[in-house]
Amino acid sequence: MCNVPVTIGLCVKNCADTIRETLNCIIGQDYPHELIEVIVVDDQSSDDTIPIVIKTLSNYSINFKVLSTNGKGLGFARQLVVKNASGKYILWVDGDMILPNNYIMQQVKFMEQNPEVGKARAKWGFLNEDYLPAKLESFRVLTHSSGNKNKLLVGIGGSICRTCALKEIGGFDEKIRGAGEDIDLSVRLAISWKNAISDAVFYHRFRKTWKSLWQQYFWYGYGIHYVNAKHKGIIKLWKYLPIISFFAGLKNFLSTIKLTKQKIAILLPFQYTFKYSAWLIGYIRSHFDQYGDLEADSSAST
After folding, report:
1. pTM of this prediction?
2. Can you list the domains of the chain with their CATH numbers?
3. Are 213 and 207 in contact (CB under 8 A)?
4. Contacts from 288-295 at CB under 8 Å and sequence distance 24+?
5. N or C: which end of the chain has fewer CB within 10 A?
6. What are phi and psi of 120, to 5 degrees?
7. Euclidean distance between CA atoms 81 and 156, whole angstroms
8. What is the pLDDT of residues 139-163, one digit of tens each?
């Protein structure tokens, strides 16, 4: 058994609809509660997310603390976890994730067996969602179980990081207010540590409406502009063009229909075109806003 202290970094914003399920998964872990601490960082939620967190975790023996970014964004939130973590490892959990009971044990065991790894992403498990946008989004999990074949370009949610490795590289870029803080971290971490995919599995609740899916991918594209300015050429923009997105969705459809026999998958080429158009528009908007241009130049020179 891997009896080492673990910090769970739970960065949240307006996830009252899903946070109870996530908290129950943390509470239900078969890892010793006395070796777990939960650091919750709130980025100015306007719903009941934080009252739910406090009420739920207060009923159990797990150590927890609630911090706030005061609106400084996701990079600042992640870095607050790093600065306050006392665990040997940090597991990054989002407020809309579902974790099997052995999740922490598997992730810690993988890191203990692979001392050269600084960050290990678990594999996405497939949930057959009820809402159409979420169902279509979940189909990509069938063909990209790690979230992305490029280990540098996977998200931080569902990952475990060696705390000393994060501190060695200075942690997260606090100037990144939106998305992309995780890719920036992975790129810098890969200079001296390995990024890996473990055998652990996690599940993710995807966006239920077309509007929220558009907003999510617009936000992704907007944030990635900063990362691409800081790490020149790390993102291949041509992959997000509508015609390329359509054929990527078609490829996913062919794989999905073979695995699930669900005819609704025929909509995947259009869904891919929709969401990556939002991504591209977000990126273009960020370019005109010059988000990250001066900051990235400054960060890259330090």
Report:
1. 0.86
2. 6-207 (3.90.550.10), 222-300 (no CATH)
3. yes
4. 291/222, 291/225, 291/226, 292/175, 292/176, 292/225, 292/226, 292/227, 292/229, 292/230, 293/229, 295/175, 295/226
5. C
6. -130, 120
7. 13
8. 888 766 544 455 556 778 889 999 9
